[in-house]
Amino acid sequence: MTLIIIISVISLFIPFLHVGLSRLIKWKSNSMKTMLPVFLFYFFLCFLAAALVGRYTAPDILAICSLVIFFWFGYMEAFSMICRGFSLHIIVDILQNRSLSLIEINENYADGKGIEWLLRKRLYDLRDLRLVDIDGDIVKIRRPFGLLIGLAGLLMKRVLKMGEGG
Amino acid sequence: MDFLEIMLTILFGIFTFILFLIFHVLVWRMVNPKCKGPQLLAILAVGSYLLSLIIHWLYCSEINIRHYAALPLFAVLVMLYSHLYVGVDRSVSIRILGELYQASQGKLDLDQLKSRYSGEHMIEHRVKLMCAEKWLVKKDDRFYCTNKAIWLARITLAIKKFYRLEDTG
Known about the structure:
The structure holds two protein chains of two kinds. Chain A is mainly α. Chain A contains eight helices and three strands. Chain A starts with a helix and ends in a 7-residue tail after the last helix. Chain B is built from seven helices and three strands. Chain B has helices spanning 2-30, 38-59, 67-90, 92-102, 110-116, 119-132, 147-163, and strands spanning 107-109, 136-139, 142-145. Chain B is extended. The chains are: A mainly alpha, B mainly alpha.
């Protein structure tokens, strides 16, 4: 229980570690390059704290690793929503304009960039991840990972009887 | 002894996660789509862990499980799976990959992609969902934020300022 409390308290400081480190090394906070050193530093702090309270048996190490991954991925999910969350950006756009119609939401999405911008951004992100190729106006899925992820998504929706998604 | 204990703890965590996946598939194939979501996933996760505890107590109580290690392990597996689930359910990118997979030769031009998954449909579908979940309210064909959405939006703007995030979306 002590271990859970200690790691939970350290985890509250992840945003400050993230911002502090990204400003120190002058990298963008939403860059993947920044995430890795922040994670490693957070990981190190948790293990240091555990060692200081004398907790270093195999079950303790398993608990620490699990808790660190749990809190880190929770944080990454929350941060990803702020950076890329579709619903969140719609809510912010509506708040900033007090109210919007459907057409206005389309046109104003993400500070006036519009929904066309979102689609292109997602396509370029997929290209950068080497999941698709873009040649002019043609988008082609890449083997093997693009194909695998596309198939996995469709299978999961079919097995779990989910909607089309997106 | 330590090695055996840690292996049994890991096995317990994995067994509980497999139980959770089985319940998840069974329940998802039976319930109303409106009930499906992260909250129901959380209930299934808690139920799975409790069931595992009962099974452990009834059939192998002599085996010592370190629950302070097994529970975080199970929580990590559920958390990682939840990311996958929400991604498949809501992600624009995964939807695009699905459309491309189903297309002939795995390719589409932009007009074809937009006809299968248009921006307007994207927005309409998501706004409908947000109205159902009481983030937005519709009056005279215009959408307004509810109180909880206003707070969330303000917190988001403050966080973006804190992180100095530009060009998000």
